[in-house]
Each structure stands twice: as structure tokens, then as C-alpha cells.
Design goal:
Elements: H1 3-23, H2 25-41, H3 52-77, H4 91-107, H5 116-167
Helix pairs in contact: 1-5, 2-3, 2-5, 3-5
């Protein structure tokens, strides 16, 4: 197969990296909004908060937000360990290696010659695979975070309906 295929695979994973990083922004905004809603509901000891079902919904919502925050942190920075994406060596090192191969190939027998294109193709394939594994894990964590945010939003809508019926 052509080197361009593997280069495109690698470039696609670098694009996915950016997409996952950008995909974290909306969940973080929603978590912030939901925390604000919880603080609004709990700012005073009203009749609304004396209902044990309301307290249970708020506690469940907080639990879902904590779980969601955990998965957001895993998707964003791997829980403080970060992500080690692979990329090509520095340009100068690539050029030096290409020159070394040319020098080596001058004296080598035909069966022992090294092809720089094959070296690049193997590098692109290995980098794309490594980066895909990272991106897949990050995407799963982002998906799980969104799932728990959705549950929190659903609970917040129930709380809002209860609040509105109590205050009307």
C-alpha cells in the first residue's frame, strides 16, 4: 500500500485528538450550569428541601455530576497522567537518517538495501495505531461523561418541575 494511506491514518488521529479536546468544552459548561442549579436549590432551607424525595434527587444528581467529572478528567488529561501521542522524529533527525540510509545503500548488496519510504510507512502505521488507541479511550470516557450529564439534566428537569409546582 502507498505511504499516503498510512500518512492519512496518522493525520486522521491527530484531527480526532483535537475533536476530543474540543468535545470536552460543552460537558464542562453543562456541569458548571448544573452545579449552579444545585446551589440555587440548596441555598436556603425552604419547604422544597424538606421533601426527602427532593433531597434524594439532589444527592443523586450530585453523584452523577461527580461521576461525569471523573470521566471528563479522564477524557481531557487522563487523570493527571496526560497522553503520550506519537509523532514523527524531528525534521533534522529524519534528514540525517535518510542520508545514513543513502550512504549505507551505496555499499550494501541489493537484498540488504533499506528503503526510506518503507521506514516512513511503518512509522506512520505505528503512530496511527498508538494514537488511535488513545483517542478511542478518550472518546469512550467523553461518551460516559455525557451519559451521566444527561442523567443529571433529566434529574434537574424533574427538580425544576417539583420546584415550580411547590412555588405556584
Amino acid at each position: 500500500m502507498d505511504i499516503e494511506f498510512y500518512k492519512e491514518l496518522h493525520n486522521r488521529e491527530l484531527t480526532r485528538r483535537k475533536e476530543v479536546e474540543d468535545g470536552v468544552n460543552i460537558p464542562i459548561g453543562l456541569i458548571t450550569l448544573l452545579i449552579g442549579l444545585i446551589s440555587y436549590f440548596t441555598k436556603d432551607e425552604s419547604v422544597f428541601l424538606k421533601n426527602c424525595y427532593v433531597k434524594a434527587l439532589i444527592i443523586l444528581m450530585i453523584i452523577f455530576l461527580l461521576i461525569s467529572s471523573f470521566y471528563i478528567a479522564k477524557a481531557y488529561n487522563g487523570l493527571f497522567k496526560g497522553f503520550e501521542y506519537e509523532n514523527l522524529p524531528l525534521s533534522k533527525k529524519l534528514l540525517d537518517y535518510e542520508n545514513e540510509i543513502e550512504d549505507y545503500n551505496k555499499d550494501a548488496e541489493e537484498s540488504e538495501k533499506i528503503n526510506f519510504g518503507d521506514y516512513l510507512k511503518n512509522n506512520f502505521a505505528e503512530m496511527a495505531e498508538h494514537n488511535k488507541i488513545i483517542n478511542d479511550e478518550r472518546s469512550v470516557n467523553l461518551h460516559l461523561s455525557k451519559k451521566y450529564i444527561f442523567l443529571s439534566v433529566t434529574l434537574s428537569l424533574v427538580l425544576i418541575l417539583i420546584y415550580l409546582t411547590k412555588t405556584i
